[in-house]
Amino acid sequence: MEPPCGAALAPAPQHGPAASASLPLFPDPAQLDPALCAFLQQASDQLCRWWAGSSTRSPLPLLSVLPDAAPGSIGLDPIALLDDLQLVMDGAFNPVHPGSMAHLDPPPLTASVAADLICAGLNNNLLAEELSPSLSRLERSLCGWMGERLGLGEQAGGVAASGGSLSNLMALVVARHQRGLVGVQEARVFCSADAHVSLAKALAVMGLPSTALRPVPVDHSGALRVDHLAAQLDAATAAGVPVLAVVATAGTTVRGAIDPLGPIAALCRQHQIWLHVDGAIGAVFGLSAAHAHLTAGLSAADSLTVNPQKLLGITKTSSLLLLRQPDALAACFATGLPYMEPSWAEAHGGECGLQGTRPAEVLKLWLGLRQLGLRGIEQLLDGAVQRRAQLQTLLAGLPLQHCSGPLHLLAFTPEGLDAQAAEQWSQHTRHRLLERQLMLSRPLYQGRHHLKAVLGNPHTGAAQLEAVAEVVEASLHASRPLR
Hints:
This protein is of the alpha/beta class. Helices cover 39% and strands 11% of the residues. It contains 13 helices and twelve strands. The chain has a seven-stranded mixed sheet with strand order 1-7-6-5-4-2-3, sandwiched between helices. Strand 10 and strand 11 (448-449) form a beta hairpin. The longest helix is centred in the last third of the chain and has 34 residues, at 362-395. The chain is globular, with a radius of gyration of 25 Å.
């Protein structure tokens, strides 16, 4: 009788050819392999133990020891493979720790982790439908649901991408194609001065000069100033300068500000300009009826980037490019796949974006959202915003300049310090926070270093927020001689 899948993995007698043979190189297509089941079970147990010990380790490891990077002449046995994995895990960033508040990297949803394993095991390829028949349909359906939920209309759709930078790049390539501006070096893109750096990268990849990106000043809340945008668009029209797109941001990187999407959309309609919304951080708030007002105007976008990995816990990477008219993707990117059978729908996945071969990342998004449900999504959003408000309240009486928006990000720096003193303060205070296993990031914003808390970690509680306030208050007293 075969041992059940999940049986304990017996220690190998040696690290060598005999032991290596105990783990198959590939799954058996004809029967269940107990050794493979045991290996996967032990790897899963190892990960669960790493999670379970997260609160005893710092979010940022103090030391990491890497195994050999190159393969040896003989393959490793299962025990040695797992030992090597453990070395890497011991030196990994620890997003599950309650003090992990530095970046837009929350703990992973458990169902999303399981889907990631299944995605790897299926090894389907979203390049073409015959290589991923059910998953191609699932991606189209889920993108359609997401686009409609965010207000882009019943015909909305899109494509998954490896990160928001790629989603933004593809959006601008589509906008250029739709606007008939391919090869036009004079084309301009207008965006907030606080827009993501990926826009500059995108234009560089597209072969446009750095002057093609035109930043628009922001107001005291970090939102794009519509009056300045209107003046710049009028000037471009008067000078006959073609505008490729306007990019509005729903959730800036440092403070989580949201540009006034409705008024920006009205200007774009007036000038007949493509509106792309970089909602990598904030668009998920539009999934909740209770929070959709924060991203009012999202529905006016021609294209939209959304990254569920940044707050909802979908395992990396999980980004979508959504379009009001998704057939614009194939119109821009399709080159034909003569080595594949024709698509059963409008176009193969590999003809709907820059990526050809793609893993079925939609699986972890789909299963994660199914695990959460709409109520679970709303609860995650509620908790994140409440934690930001709580920390802001705890810091309110201190001599700090706060930079925040309506979402779950909060940046702050002491009042009255010059750039050099602010940098010293931020380094010193971050070090003191890490000593307490509290990790905040240290962005350079508007010429001065800040500390930034991202409050999307559901494990972060009142104790951690109060400890942050305590350390920050002590650091402000220590920094007084620097003023």
